[in-house]
Design a protein that fits this description.
two-stranded antiparallel sheet; 245 residues; alpha+beta; five-stranded mixed β-sheet
Length: 245
């Protein structure tokens, strides 16, 4: 089945009900996942694509409240269904950006927009924040959670030029359940694959690997610093996320 409660799989680009913009976003993502000359650094993501375990959702203008509501609905559905999709699943969200934002926004403005989305998103969460996860992002065990599921958040923007691994024609989120990483880390090939990921990053980006790319749970690691990476190796001194139920 191709349509799953507003979540779509790889076949959506072939369906007539998608408009040209939606199709173009999916095709661009597909090109990133299948490019052999410049392979995308995140190998687990490319595996998820090949295995048809990636799911897609489309939302509107990120400055509008109804867009956050739509995102909350999609993420709620995904949180319930994600374990059915496979061990390499992620949810890809494409925002329909107004042309003015695409033409004028800097990376720092996109960064603010991203954190505004997460801050507003928790207000639509109908489930309790997981008891084992701190609500303070400056705790090394913190990570974003929604509908009882723990997620790693990745943001890409049209403003990124040097860090190509975070560049995309529109504002895009890649949302991956924590259990995907846990299962991957338990595999016998995890260490070897992660070395390849680092090597690919060096070839893919025209800037060095960001120093905040560290393993979850390490005392010197803070997940929020990895969610949005700038085009340089600078990081905000304080996380903009505030948990308000």
């Amino acid at each position: 089945m191709i349509i799953l409660n507003k979540l779509y799989n790889n076949e959506i680009a072939k369906r007539k009900q998608l408009d040209p913009w939606e199709k173009s976003m999916v095709f661009h993502f597909e090109e990133n996942m299948t490019d052999r000359e410049y392979p995308f650094p995140c190998i687990p993501a490319t595996i998820g694509y090949v295995l048809n375990q990636i799911r897609y959702g489309f939302v509107g203008d990120p400055t509008e409240e109804e867009t956050v509501q739509a995102l909350a609905e999609l993420l709620s559905i995904y949180a319930v269904q994600c374990k059915k999709f496979g061990e390499y699943t992620s949810l890809i969200i494409f925002y329909r950006l107004p042309e003015e934002i695409k033409k004028t926004y800097t990376i720092e403005q996109y960064e603010q927009l991203f954190w505004q989305q997460l801050n507003k998103l928790v207000g639509y969460d109908k489930e309790a924040w997981p008891g084992e996860i701190p609500t303070d992002p400056h705790h090394h065990m913190w990570e974003f959670s929604f509908h009882g599921e723990r997620f790693f958040m990745y943001c890409a923007t049209p403003a990124h030029q040097k860090r190509n691994s975070r560049g995309f024609p529109t504002l895009m989120l890649a949302i991956t359940p924590r259990w995907v990483f846990q299962q991957f880390n338990e595999s016998k090939h995890a260490e070897k694959i992660m070395k390849k990921v680092r090597k690919r990053l060096k070839n893919y980006d025209s800037i060095s690997v960001h120093p905040e790319l560290k393993p979850y749970g390490a005392e010197d690691n803070f997940e929020w610093k990895q969610y949005f990476l700038r085009d340089d190796n600078q990081t905000l001194s304080r996380c903009p996320f505030h948990y308000k139920k």
